[in-house]
């Protein structure tokens, strides 16, 4: 008998309504409620990266953007 791995869905963009595969990780935290070393992650497709970075950056939450493998 062969063990079959369950099919996995690709990680998708965090933008509202988007179902495109994620190509970027936006690392962020809210300094009012998170410790300085805590990082939350939003995933982004190519098309939504700039908009999500702008949203997080305007609030002072964006810490880094990295490629998503």
Automatic annotation (TrEMBL):
Designated name of the protein: Acetone carboxylase
Q: Lineage of the native species?
A: Bacteria, Bacillati, Actinomycetota, Actinomycetes, Propionibacteriales
